[in-house]
Amino acid sequence: MDVLKGFWTSIFWGMYDSFKGTYTLFHLDKELNRRRLSRYSPTHSNSPVRRRQSESRDQTPVRTLQKHEESTVMSRILQCGLLNGAIFLCSIIFFESAFLPCMNMVIMFLFGQESSSGLSVWFWIDLLLRIFFQTTWVVPLFTISKFINNLWFQDIGQSAYRYSRGRSNTSLGLSKSVADFIFSAVVEVIFLVQAMLMTYNPIYYLGYGLYLIHLSLLYSLYAFEYKWGEMGWEIHRRLTCIETHWPYFIGFGLPLAMLTQLSDSFIISGCVFSMLFPVYIISANEANPVAESCSRIKIFSPVIAVTNALFSIVGKGKKLTTQRPVAQHQHRR
User: Fold this and answer.
1) Which pairs count as long-range contacts for 257-264, CB under 8 Å and 24+ apart, including other chains?
2) Are 242 and 300 in contact (CB under 8 A)?
């Protein structure tokens, strides 16, 4: 009974923490800019010499530097919403819900509702219009938006970490960071494939439930990666934390997983994810995973085995283990 209570408690706190970013983002920019201004203000220096030096500096470069260093998390989130929602998502909805139905009405009006030739003409026009729209608009914009989103997500992640924890503690070298990034990217892609395989379960609701659990854990890993990367955690430690506190991370990623499943379109789901994910990055920086009495599940073990096999074939990586101990997390009071 205690295990079941701890399970649902962890899921609840995970879902609760996933909404923290919606509150924090309204204070994040203001607080970070206040901290930056305090570094330049002569009244915050205890040394008389430093105060005189600060007062004697030309104020124009300082103001320029301050403006250049201003936190722009809110503007980044608005830009994500504008690019992925107002431009990308709305264009797809307009094409599917307005443009194509209007074209269909025109063709049916010209050829007649029951005309076989009209249906044949509409079949080819619909096909050609979809191909043209996908190749000239959707695919290029999707590719560009993915690249831009990644830059914005990284900027938001760094700002959120500075707000909640201060300076970055990462100590990985460049080559080790690149290797860790490549390995984690491969792990995440294969884990997504593992999640999609769950949908082939003959029992539909069981398969879909397992798929949502996988997706929730994956989205949690995405969100916490920015925080853990700044803390200097390598991939093995991140996966161990997910596997140890899996009920919490299911709850944390579940709202986003459910919202992205509202549409069957991969593109539309990607737009919804890109609009909401920046808030999840901020929430992850504010969160502390609950350590309840639930057994660890090695859900990433098959993925790690496949990834190790792939890297051993190409001879570019060494095997990874998730057996290393993870640092003790704080218990929620």
Assistant:
1) 257/212, 257/215, 257/216, 257/219, 258/212, 260/215, 261/212, 261/215
2) yes
Phi, psi of 10 (to 5 degrees): -65, -40
Cα angle vertex 213, ends 282, 19, to 5°? 25
Identify which of 59, 14, 19, 12 has the alpha carbon closest to the alpha carbon of residue 40: 59
Residue type, 256: L
The residue type found at 130 is: R
Single out the residue of 257, 277, 289 nearest to residue 25, CA to CA. Answer: 277
Coil vs helix vs strand at 150: helix
CA dihedral 58, 59, 61, 63 (to 10 degrees): 170
Residues in the chain: 333
- Helices (runs of H) and strands (runs of E) counted in the chain: 15, 0
Beta strands in 110-254 (DSSP E): none
d(CA 18, CA 280): 6
C-beta neighbour count of 264 within 10 angstroms: 7
CA distances from 178 to 67, 149, 183, 234, 272 (A): 32, 20, 9, 11, 29
Query: pTM score, two decimals?
Result: 0.80
Summarised one tens digit per residue, pLDDT across range 245-270 is 999 999 999 999 999 999 888 888 98
DSSP string, 270-286: HHHHHHHHHHHHHHHHH
Q: Are the C-beta atoms of residues 156 and 210 closer than 8 Å to each other? A: no
- CA dist 252 and 224 (Å) reads 10
Q: Of the given ranges (27-36, 114-123, 225-234), which has the lowest mean pLDDT?
A: 27-36
Q: Would the pLDDT of 47 be above 80?
A: no
Closest CA to 95 of 140, 138, 142, 145: 138
Residue written as token pair 């706190």: 13
- The set of residues, in sequence order, having a beta carbon less than 8 Å from that of 122 and lying 6+ positions away, is 104, 107, 108
Q: In angstroms, how far is the first alpha carbon of the chain from the final one?
A: 20
Q: What span, in angstroms and rounded, lies between the C-alpha atoms of 322 and 296? A: 11
